[in-house]
Amino acid sequence: MEPQYEKIIVLVIVLLAGFVTWKMVKDFYITKMHKVIAHLIAVATSSFMLLSTMFLFMPKNYQRGTGPEVELSFMSVITVFVMVAVLYVFFKYAPQSTKKK
Question: Rounded to two decimals, what is the model's pTM?
Answer without folding.
Answer: 0.77
